[in-house]
Write a structure and sequence with these properties.
Radius of gyration: 26 Å
Number of helices: 9
Helix content: 25-40%
Order of helices and strands: EHHEEEEHEEHHEHEEEEEEEHEHEH
Strand order of the largest sheet: 7-6-3-8-9-16
Largest sheet: 6 strands, mixed
CATH superfamily of the largest domain: von Willebrand factor, type A domain
Number of domains: 2
Strand content: 25-35%
CATH class of the largest domain: Alpha Beta
Oligomer: single chain
CATH architecture of the largest domain: 3-Layer(aba) Sandwich
């Protein structure tokens, strides 16, 4: 069993206390009031119980998020002064909601590739992995190379979707028997800070059907609050010493040129993400790129968690209906 509260539990607890303080006259009336408040609290908890009969929608779409998790993604210039990585989390959650029934994969890149979530129908797993992203610590941030993003795409997609010119002996997937639609969202601010030159992404384009390159940040740039060590909670603005040995607060600026080059290599559209509403445009455009004939959907039962709120909602409805009848009767007598 698990819970998934609609409102935060402390907030709902305060609401329930206020409702109980407004005490009704009469013992039976107050008992009903207590029961109604408890039912409201239980509904808000969204108690989920394990079951083998969860009805789920599956599609033949694989959605891969490749996310830049370097220090620069902590810059505070998304939708005003929010962190870029927080904008990514909000936008990705919306995009996943638009691809109901897809399989989701999550890979991040810093100085190395981290394949966090292999393709899964469990959206919650992908969401939790993305929510945990918090950039690099100062001690591990040794410069950014977007070529590691290429490595992430190649590492995840090549074993699953092999092109005809692969030279190894591994068995290739029969596209006719397993026609998956591969959707890729490449997410970064486009900065290269390790002196490397951006390589071509064209080789991995063969593994991708559609998707988008999403750019975060502004030309003005933003400052970055970072942790000195990964396990620490305290943060401070990243600084460096200039040529005159003066301490300067570092500012990260988006490099749209690099992102546009990657988009061109992959055959995808580039979008500059500056506010939450951009995600709606991106999701709609990508869905439009999927041909209707390619898209399939099926419904099946599998293990998962079933909702129980409806049980408490029915009971709440009974008590509220009783209260309504009592109130109408009382009003009728007073006339």
């Amino acid at each position: 069993m698990k819970i998934d509260p609609i409102l935060p539990i402390p907030v709902m607890a305060v609401i329930c206390i206020i409702l109980l303080v407004l005490k009704r006259k009469g013992v039976w009336n107050y008992i009903r009031q207590i029961i109604i408040v408890l039912l409201l609290f239980a509904i808000n908890l969204r108690i989920l119980v394990p079951t083998d009969k969860v009805n789920v929608v599956n599609t033949n779409i694989d959605v891969l998020f490749v996310i830049d998790n370097t220090i620069s993604m902590l810059a505070e210039d998304y939708n005003g002064d929010d962190r870029r990585i927080d904008g990514v989390k909000e936008d990705v959650e919306y995009i996943m909601g638009e691809f109901e029934g897809a399989r989701y994969g999550v890979a991040t890149f810093t100085t190395e590739v981290n394949y966090l979530v292999p393709f899964t129908y469990e959206q919650d797993i992908a969401t939790q992995a993305i929510e945990a992203l918090d950039g690099q610590a100062k001690t591990t941030g040794n410069g950014t190379s977007l070529n590691t993003g290429y490595d992430a795409l190649n590492q995840v997609l090549k074993p699953l979707y092999k092109s005809d010119d692969d030279e190894d002996d591994e068995e290739e997937i029969d596209v006719e028997e397993d026609p998956r639609i591969v959707v890729v969202f490449f997410i970064s601010d486009g900065e290269i800070t390790d002196g490397s030159k951006l390589k071509s992404f064209e080789r991995v384009a063969d593994y991708i059907d559609t998707g988008a390159v999403l750019g975060y940040g502004t030309r003005t740039g933003g400052k970055m609050k970072v942790r000195d060590i990964a396990t620490w909670d305290d943060t401070s603005y990243l600084t460096y010493y200039d040529s005159n040995f003066n301490s300067v607060t570092a500012v990260s600026k988006i490099d749209e040129g690099n992102l546009e080059d990657i988009a061109a290599d992959l055959g995808l559209n580039y979008y500059h993400m500056t506010k939450p509403s951009n995600a709606r445009t991106v999701a709609a455009d990508v869905m439009d790129n999927i041909e209707t004939g390619q898209f399939t959907k099926s419904v099946e039962d599998r293990k998962g968690f079933a909702e129980t709120y409806w049980i408490f909602a029915i009971a709440l409805g009974v008590f509220l209906a009783y209260d309504f009848v009592v109130l109408r009767t009382k009003m009728g007598r007073e006339r």
